[in-house]
Design brief:
heterodimer, A: mainly alpha, Cytochrome Bc1 Complex, Chain D, domain 2, B: 1022 residues, Barwin-like endoglucanases, 6-stranded mixed β-barrel, 33 helices, 19% strand, 4Fe-4S dicluster domain-containing protein (chain B), 4Fe4S_Fe-S-bd (chain B), TAT_var_transloc_signal_dom (chain B), transmembrane helix (chain A), membrane (chain A)
Chain lengths: 439, 1022
């Protein structure tokens, strides 16, 4: 039976190809990122302990020196090879004396570094200095390959086979089934034709759309449904005009709250210091950035993500330097500044008065309540809808924090008696009056 | 059943033969509507390139495009500082204490700055800072942001650098030295110890140089008289708070007389004080020609010409000193003056006499009378230094210039080409000056003619020191970096003198010699330092011959023109300030104009009229003023002024400027052209000219019509002897055929306001002098727009706070009430009320500041269809602009007419080219208050932004609010004590006590609105 054999061969091929495809996808998942290259061991050992040295370096030297880049002082990697040990001891214990003594190396070093004298460390024992030298003589570790989706990506891959692959496979199976159905139908027809069975022709029926038009009840119900549905969508569209929730514009400098507030745990009020006292939280002026970035000219290797490389972040820091006029190489301000034009994300209308200090300082509301989990945002966005309903809802349910605030003592006692409650909400304090926010 | 009545559709139907009736039976309109004419023009229609379909396409497309464009939100930028100054926190105001003296006005100030830009002037309340800001000083903040300012120095009309200007002046000075030509520094009065020292150094370096002081509005005769007796040119700083009897002969001391700023001292004596039943206030007699603020406040005002005032002064001199100089005075006037003189004499040291007569003899008599009284209000210690100008020297300068003997002329703070009566002589002389320079804020009449137009900084951008009175030392400090490429006059002198450093360094180096007992930082912080004033001993003068000379002075032949300065514009320095132009004159209530004020009797003779026309605007005749010398001032609008002395007319100086002014501000006529010999009294004749002038007057209704419940007035006698119900009657209504207090009946349910703050604003009509500081302060605080003359004329003024002025139609308001009570029958009422619409020839005047009354039971709130106006627990009637749809129901239902509607967009609109139409002018806007858009209602918010800010400060500091912390813009600007604001739930607060006062009443109490603004009955000491 030629036909039968034919049929079988197709099914086999299909089955085989499906099996093949699945196996490929699984095997690809089995691959893993190569383990991070382990740090190479110290090549030069001059009788010091690099591990102790690292600790000492971080406590004593890191404020002004980096291993591989110039900061306030010069880069220290390989310093043991540049000077002899006795000279280094003297320099560290009191560089000023060395310079005064007219040591040529010392004077040159002093002049090369903007004539900023180095703090004397007479308390550092020679053994300690040996340890530090040992640490600085370690070879630079190769940068670890970025771990895919360390923070930004969720654990999509953790379960093994990803959802997309499963869905793809299922879709393929369905497709194959449809094709098979079609083939089976075809075969049956051929069989029927071969056996001389005549398939009765279909009776001509009314096209479905005509039937629909004739059924007036159905037309009525449908049009009512369509009207309501379109009304729903039009209303929904109109209500979102001017509501910019999730607005996350591209900023002139890619500033990551994830790194600053998340990884580094910097308090929001450090930069947005006006939030405690003023109407606006304030975008920090660039000199605030420079408090830290004077020393941090590049991100650490672990900061980069799959999406944003270390190189990318480092370039963003350079943008800051350009704006503030910081000459990194000479560790000086040039005086040429280019104020940054940030794109404002939270735009309240001019007829709304909002004061941060009322909410942050008086009420003690967490920044995240209105601004969302900022510490996880790589790109800042508008978390809250900033609609009046949103404000009012919060005022209705939020209890006024009056402990330790003498302003509230009397007024709370009287009002809570009036309303018969223990704790007053902002609404009961008058927080729903139009004039409290609109003037 | 059908009716037999016939209904007429129009009067035409009465005429049976009318063709119109027939035509209307068939057609809708009597005349053919010319549709065929239009449509029939086939040629034109078909030749048009735009078909009907095209038209619809365009409409559809542009609508769709506009809709789509509107969907995209704008992108806002935020640009933080690169290095943020430590003391600036965005959103928090900084205050700087400073002292201003611009040659005319002076005050101790606190300047509020936001994000580095000054936005509001407040009064410095530190001890020793006794000079408060008047309306003009409050408005001066806007002059800082004047777009017509001179932005860089110019030499011969071309932009130049300061280096060029310096070298040009230096070489000219050297040239003058070589040639022996005269060098003149022409300045306004400086009152600055450092600048005066600097000029002294300059004149000692340049022996051919001299310093001429020129006051646009002169007080030269008073200075001369004081110099004769006390040996120095100065003005007495009167203390009216110590006076029980005040007699003013032509001195508008509540206005600009000798610099003004006497309101707060005066008002202290005007609030009844003492044990109940024998409370006291001062008694104030005023003899004057024009109706002034002082005349309005007076207990007894007598209108008389300046000629009569001179006689009156002699008469008072006779009475007080016991002399017998012959006096020629009408018997009736004589009786009035004698009455005042006797009371003055009886008061002894508690009496004080002031006079504004510009005559040295008259001013000598003032000194004589006050000396004879040993008046405690009068002191020769701590004299005012704010006027030093000498008429003779200025006249001599003009002569010298015309003679060509002036080589170099350097001016600062003066505009003689505008303000000199003989300005043509000056301009002619200027051409003969080899080099002239003018340090000026604007390229004005003078600066546009001088060789060098030197751009000077505004006082809010400058350093300086001011000694307003002797012993009082104030520092002027910049509150913003100079907006333009400007340089102070002093810096030029320093560079010429060869001093290395700026004027700031010079000030600091001189500080020790000016102030002992304080430090630079302390004085800079306080703004003012009060030291010891050296006393001057009185010399003697021949008072008798002065009195004789005065009594023999001749009256003018024709009409007597009395020139004065208006509360709005003063000497005219700030003519390009829209706030001041739109500020209605307290007396006439006319804005955007000056005019000649004529008495009712004279107006009748000369056929000059004022009338309210159909659109509600005020129209007035034009007149031409001709002086005895034939100087003409043509087409001067006329205001018929109740209280104007018969035979006198008044005209304000400071108007009629044309150069460096926006077109809208070029209003009025230049009164300086008639200010011959710096004499404010001139002999003139008036002739009517054709045409009517359209005034922008905000108050058409002049009189109270006997409605004593709007302004309650009583006399001190009744106040002291009768119960409050007599002079502060509670309105009654009938309820169930029984008389009950009007406030007992209510449509609304009351809310409990006893918890938290409940704000009240108290206005004491006794202390209010109508000075208008509050009006301008409100403007600045609340971003109130300027609408322009045309809109004001249409009664579309936007002032949140107005000061109503009422005249009595009888001699007194009490007389009005009596007359109204005596009306019997309809015909009598019609005729009487008709007559009562006209003010008396010498009426009593009352001022009443009216703003939103913040009714607890507010009629406006009930009628708002969208609940845009609602009430807060704190008593404020709140207006949510974003909710308002502009039905104006609220304004129509407001019994106080205090709601203001934005008929147009007043910002960013070239139709209203005032400060809100340019970037510079918008810098003055208060960022805490929304700028309203077209189609919304607005009104006084009781400065809710300020009360909220005060509460927030207390919350942040974790404490309760202290009494006196709550302020509105008007209450903090009011230094007379007329306006007091505070929380009445704080029973110890000043305002809570004022609410309990017997004099307290509510405006239109019978309406039952329960306002949160309270007034106090005016008590006159007649």
């Amino acid at each position: 039976m030629k036909k039968v054999g034919d049929h079988n061969s197709i099914s086999k091929k299909l089955f085989l190809s499906l099996a093949l495809m699945l196996s490929i996808s699984i095997s690809s998942l089995a691959q893993e990122a190569a383990p991070a290259a382990s740090a190479t061991t110290a090549v030069v050992s001059q009788g010091g302990d690099p591990v102790k040295g690292k600790e000492l370096f971080n406590t004593n030297c890191a404020a002004c020196h980096k291993l591989d880049a110039k900061a306030t002082g010069p880069a220290l990697r390989g310093v043991g090879a540049k000077h002899d040990k006795a000279w280094i001891y003297k320099w560290v214990h009191n560089s000023n004396d060395l310079i005064k003594s007219g040591d040529a190396d010392a004077v040159k070093l002093f002049n090369d570094n903007n004539k900023v004298p180095m703090t004397a460390f007479p308390a550092l024992a020679e053994a300690d200095i040996d340890n530090i030298i040992a640490y600085t003589m370690e070879e630079k570790a190769a940068a670890p390959a970025p771990v895919a989706g360390t923070v930004a990506g969720t654990n999509e891959n953790a379960g093994g086979i990803s959802n997309n692959v499963i869905l793809g496979a299922l879709a393929l199976v369905m497709l194959i089934l449809i094709v098979m159905l079609f083939l089976v139908n075809n075969v049956l027809r051929k069989v029927a034709a071969a056996n001389g069975i005549v398939v009765a022709p279909k009776e001509p029926t009314i096209p479905i759309w005509k039937a629909f038009v004739r059924n007036q009840f159905l037309v009525l119900v449908t049009s009512i449904f369509l009207l309501l549905a379109s009304g729903f969508f039009v209303y929904g569209y109109l209500m979102q005009i001017g509501v910019d929730q999730d607005y996350s514009p591209v900023q002139p400098i890619h500033y990551s709250h994830r790194i600053h507030a998340g990884s580094n745990g910097i308090n929001c009020n450090y930069c947005h210091s006006a939030a405690r006292v003023g109407k606006t939280a304030g975008i920090p002026s660039l000199n605030v950035c420079m408090n830290c970035h004077k020393n941090i000219s590049e991100v650490s290797d672990t900061t980069s993500t799959a999406e944003y490389s270390k190189d990318f972040y480092d370039k963003e820091i350079q943008k800051l330097y350009k704006a503030v006029g910081w000459d990194k190489d000479n560790q000086k301000y040039t005086g040429v500044t280019q104020p940054v034009k940030w794109v404002r994300i939270h735009n309240l209308q001019s007829f709304v008065y909002f004061n941060h200090s009322q909410h942050v300082n008086v009420a003690g509301v967490e920044c995240q309540t209105c601004h969302g989990p900022v510490q996880t945002y790589e790109i800042q966005k508008q978390f809250a809808p900033l609609t009046m309903k949103w404000c009012i809802d919060c005022h209705r349910k939020t209890e006024v924090k009056m402990e330790g605030n003498d302003y509230y003592t009397k007024i709370h006692e009287q009002l809570s008696k009036k309303y018969g409650v223990d704790k007053l909400t902002a609404a009961q304090m008058g927080g729903l009056e139009c004039g409290k926010c609109h003037y | 059943m059908s009716s037999n009545k016939k209904y007429w559709k129009s009067v035409e139907e009465l005429d049976g033969n009318s063709s119109i009736v027939e035509a209307l039976k068939n057609n809708e309109f009597v005349e053919e509507i010319p549709t065929d004419e239009f449509l029939g023009n086939g040629g034109l229609l078909s030749s048009s390139s735009t078909s009907r379909r095209d038209f619809l396409k365009y409409v559809g497309f542009s609508t769709a495009a506009a809709t789509l464009a509107a969907c995209e939100g704008p992108v806002h930028m935020s640009i933080p500082y690169v290095v943020q100054p430590e003391q600036i926190i965005p959103g928090i105001a900084d205050y700087y204490a400073t002292t201003v003296f611009d040659g005319f006005d002076f005050a101790n100030l606190l300047v509020k700055t936001r994000e580095g830009r000054p936005i509001k002037i407040d009064n410095n309340t530190i001890e020793g800072a006794k000079f408060a800001a008047n309306a003009r000083v409050h408005a001066s903040i806007l002059s800082l942001y004047d777009s017509m300012r001179l932005k860089e120095p110019k030499i011969a009309g071309k932009n130049a650098t300061w280096i060029d200007v310096d070298s040009k002046i230096k070489s000219s000075l050297a040239d003058a030295k070589a040639k022996g030509g005269q060098v003149v520094l022409l300045t306004s009065t400086l009152a600055s110890p450092s600048t005066e020292k600097l000029i002294a150094e300059f004149t000692s370096n340049n022996p051919n140089a001299k310093h001429v002081i020129y006051d646009a509005v002169s007080s030269s005769e008073t200075l001369d008289a004081f110099e004769t007796v006390y040996g120095e040119r100065a003005l007495v700083d009167y203390d009216f708070s110590k006076a029980a009897v005040i007699v003013s002969v032509g001195a508008d001391f509540l206005g600009d007389w000798q610099g003004g700023n006497y309101d707060s001292g005066y008002a202290k004596g005007r609030i009844p004080q003492g044990p109940k039943g024998s409370q006291k206030i001062s008694r104030h007699f005023q003899f004057e020609a024009n109706m002034t603020l002082s005349g309005a406040a007076a207990d007894k005002r007598v209108a008389m010409s300046t000629a009569n005032q001179k006689q009156a002064l002699v008469l008072i001199y006779n009475t007080v000193v016991g002399a017998a100089v012959p006096v020629i005075l009408d018997a009736k006037l004589k009786a009035e003056v004698t009455k005042a003189a006797l009371q003055l004499k009886a008061a002894g040291s508690a009496g004080v006499l002031v006079s504004g007569i510009q005559d040295k003899n008259a001013q000598l008599l003032v000194l004589a009378i006050n000396q004879a009284l040993a008046s405690s209000s009068f002191s020769s210690i701590g004299t005012r230094q704010i006027r030093k100008g000498s008429n003779e020297k200025v006249a001599q300068l003009v002569k010298d210039m015309k003679a060509g003997s002036v080589h170099t002329l350097i001016m600062s703070g003066v505009n003689p080409a505008y303000s000199l009566p003989n300005s043509t002589d000056f301009v002619e002389g200027l051409k003969k000056v080899s080099l002239s320079a003018s340090f000026s804020l604007r390229e004005d009449e003078t600066a546009s003619l001088t060789t060098i137009a030197a751009a000077a900084p505004h006082y809010l951008e400058s350093w300086g020191d001011v000694s307003i009175t002797k012993g009082n030392y104030g520092l002027t400090q910049p509150t913003i970096r100079p907006l333009f490429n400007t340089k102070q006059f002093q810096d030029l002198l320093l560079s010429v003198n060869g001093f290395v450093g700026s004027y700031y360094d010079y000030l600091k180096s001189n500080f020790a010699s000016n102030v002992s007992g304080s430090t630079w930082n302390q004085v800079l912080h306080d703004g003012v330092f009060v030291g010891e004033a050296s006393s001057v001993s009185a010399g003697s003068a021949d008072y008798t011959s002065a009195a004789n000379a005065l009594s023999q002075s001749k009256a003018v032949q024709n009409l007597e023109l009395v020139l004065y300065t208006k509360t709005g514009l003063g000497d005219g320095q700030q003519a390009n300030n829209p706030w001041l132009q739109e500020f209605p004159d307290p007396i006439t209530r006319v804005s955007w104009d000056n005019y000649v004020t004529v008495s009712h009797a004279d107006a009748k003779l000369l056929k000059l009229t004022n009338e309210i026309v159909a659109n509600g605007g005020l129209d007035g005749s034009y007149a031409t003023i001709t002086t005895a010398d034939g100087v003409k001032l043509e087409n001067v609008p006329v205001i018929v002024q109740p209280g104007q002395a018969v035979g006198t007319v008044g005209l304000a100086l400071g108007y009629g400027k044309k150069v460096a002014l926006k077109e809208e501000m070029q209003v009025g006529v230049n009164g300086y052209s008639l200010y011959k010999g710096f004499n404010n009294v001139q002999s003139v004749s008036l002739t009517k000219v054709d045409g009517d002038h359209q005034f922008a007057c905000v108050q058409g209704q002049k009189t109270l019509m006997g409605r004593g419940d709007i302004i309650k007035e009583t006399t001190l006698e009744i106040f002291n002897t009768k119960d409050a119900e007599h002079w502060n009657e509670k309105p009654m209504v009938s309820l169930d055929h029984k008389e009950v207090e009007a406030t007992a009946v209510d449509l609304w349910t009351s809310f409990d306001r006893s918890i938290g703050q409940h704000f009240n604003l108290s206005i004491d009509l006794n202390a209010c002098t109508g000075c208008g500081s509050c009006v301008i302060a409100c403007h600045a605080e609340n971003n109130v727009p300027v609408v322009g003359k045309d809109e004001i004329r249409r009664s579309r003024d936007m002032h949140w706070l107005r000061i109503d002025r009422y005249y009595s139609s009888e001699e007194t308001f009490a007389g009005d009430n009596e007359r109204k009570e005596n009306i019997a029958g309809l015909s009598s009422s019609l005729s009487t009320f008709n007559e009562m619409e006209h003010a008396s020839d010498n009426p009593q005047v009352s001022f009443q500041p009216v703003m939103c009354q913040h009714c607890n039971h507010a009629p406006c709130e009930t009628v708002c269809p969208v609940a845009a106006t609602s009430h807060g627990r704190q008593g404020q009637n709140q207006m949510a602009y974003n909710r308002c749809v502009g039905t104006r129901y609220c304004a129509n239902n407001c019994p106080y007419k205090v709601r203001r509607f934005n008929w147009f967009l007043y910002n960013n609109n070239s139709e209203f080219d005032f400060n809100m139409n340019d970037d510079l002018g918008r810098m003055v806007l208060n960022p805490d208050v929304a700028v309203r858009s077209r189609g919304v209602m607005e009104k006084c918010s009781m400065c809710i932004q300020k009360t909220q800010a005060t509460i927030l400060t207390a919350k942040n500091e974790g404490r309760e609010v202290v009494d006196g912390e709550f302020q509105t813009a008007c209450s903090s600007a009011c230094t007379t004590g007329a306006m007091v604001f505070g929380d009445i739930n704080d029973k110890e607060s000043q305002v809570a006590k004022l609410v309990e006062d017997e004099r307290m009443y509510h405006l239109l109490e019978h309406v039952g609105t329960k306002p949160n603004v309270i007034y106090h009955v005016k008590v006159r000491n007649t």
